[in-house]
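User:
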Amino acid sequence: MKNDYFSHLSDADNWCQKSNQQEMPSDDVAFLKYRLHQISDTRDFNDDRKQQPTYPDIERVAIQPQIWNKPFKAKSKPNRSFIATIRRLIMFLLIAIQTYLGTNYLSSLLPYQSWDKINFMANWQLNPELAIYNVIPYIIQGIIIVLFAILFCWISIGFWTSIMGLILAVIGKDRFTIPIPTDPASHIDNTHRTALVMPICNEDVARVFAGLEATYQSLVETGHAACCDFYILSDTNDPDLYVNELKAWADFNAKKADNGCQIFYRHRKRRVKRKSGNIDDFCRRWGHLYEYMMILDADSIMTGDCILKMIAMMEMTPNAGILQSPPKSVRMKTLYGRIQQFANQIYSDIFCSGTHFWQLGEAQYWGHNAMIRLKPFIEHCILSPLQKRKGPLHILSHDLVEATLMRRAGYGVWIAYNLNGSYEELPGNMIEDLKRDNRWCMGNLINLRLIFKSGITFTHRIMFLTSGMAYISSLLWLVFLIFSTLLLLVFNISEPQYFYQSNQFYPTWPKWDEQLAIRLLSTTLILLFAPKFFSYGIIIAKTRAKDVGGIFKLTLSILIEMIWSMILAPIRMIFHSKFVVKAWLGSKIQWKSPSRNDDALTWGESFYFCWPLSILGIIWLAIIIWLNPQFTYWYIAILIPLTISPLVIRVSGLSSVGIKAQKAGLFLTPEETHPTRAVTLTDDYLQQTEAAFVQHGFIMALVDPVYNALACALSTSRHLANEKNQLVRDELVHHYLHTDLEKITKEQQLAILEDPFILSQLHRHIWLQQEKYDNLFQLWQNERQ
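Assistant: Predicted structure:
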């Protein structure tokens, strides 16, 4: 261990000497408390159960999961906002008009313009082969036009959302939103308590507790921490991480002040329904004790002021069910992470404002950094699996579904688009980001099955569709490019047809109008990049870019980010298309926590994930050059990034490159130049939690007296004392005594840690036969150094 628990004990020999001299309690309970007292307050120790409580007494309440096929009858219908209806109608008209104009423009520039002259049935009677040959280009062209209409509509949604965000940014406020109080404490009822809930599963323990402690300390500094409690809800099944979680929780509680804000920890043995099941379990056990619940992610950081303001906003708006804060990305070091962080902080304000503009009280919930009113959540938002012929289909992306059900029950779901003090972190490289996208893609496509369920508002039905389109659009872009290549193939290798009717006097010349195509491409790029320039203009107008390195550095950073997004777009397109196809084919995914370590990506992993993209890019480019070299530059921006994708992903995943960019003043964000105290505290606490982390947590629980006491006392497994249970335990202990404990499976290790009786007996046996377990003691001594 890096920290010596006993200043009077330096090594195993001293511990044995103490034991032989009988200077320690001989009673099992007293001995357990003696060891535990070295790092924890044992006043609440339960002597009968030999257990140190880590959470409040359980008083389970009944919760009713959703019955999806049952018609929903609302007790009170959701209030329809006239303003929201008008805003959505304006958005719809603008998007529809723009899509019509763009699609009509594309139709006019494509090479085949004689569809009205083709009489397929007449040509079929004369020459079926020629009839099919004549119509194939028009079928391909028709598919291209339909795909373009859908995709241009999708681009238009983002463009007009940013326009609405720009309007709100210029106006400065929206009176049709929940106001942010200047004195939040005056609006909070002291009897209404809030639980800050962090579900975790095999996360970076040091980072989890550093962020949690920073959030706690920021809340304490407001002077109103007593209205909140923290819950760490662990689904961790890695034994080494589990032991570290126990130690980190004990360390956290040992140094916190007695201010009425409690830090609880619960480790779940039955890990059903992943994160949503973890939250359901909290609601069932302790939800009735609290008025509100704030969901935190493993990488969340919140300022105390932001938390108090969100509580006050919920108090001021009794019909608000969910209040979502806009989290800003912080603490990224790799080039990929820093560019994503820059884009998030620079562009997100305008998109959050625009999204709020048309969603109002029927907004989205992103699953974390959000305040939830617990009573309606427990009554209406507990999820059940969807029914499928092959078995139950679990809802993976639960956040939007829960927001939908909350709104269906008559409560508002709001985005506090202009609230500061909410933070998160991003994946450090593109592979980890794509793994997360794979999970989200699967979840969003599953949610499409809920579009026509009873009682759901029209706005949330649209959100189910747009959340699916976030990934389906990539597949549509890929199909669009494939059919564009096919049209190029037909245009270049087929014999052109100039006469489609027997009495046609003038020939029809297929032609490709390149100038019109360039204009349409330019218009599309303007729609894509306009939101970035809007954000740029707002920053210059407000602060002249003082917080982001100055005007020149900001301009250069945005230009590089735009080029970077163009490079990554085709790579994302291929991967997202793959995810969509796999989801439709029923492929299963492993829902693992993302790696949050920088420089975790190797060259081997980069090539393993991306070599098919490189092959595809090379072959596709060769086909285009073979067909018509003049069209190469139309595809170069797509095919070159695919070809060099391993290099792009590997280099962008390096923190050294990102740090050099930071030193050069590129991709700076306001939270870097003027960080909030909660973010700086996270960095400070992270040094402490990383120093306390041990690699061999299970071995430490077997050998180290304090770790063993901690695991035994904090284990939730307490079987009744009877002959059958004791016989099973004795057999397991006998088995493990004749087994190399370093080589048993993770599942066996976790089972030992969850049974305090087996763990205690193994610990005692190891210390009585030290010569037999020299390898374990060596690992223990290495961890203590």
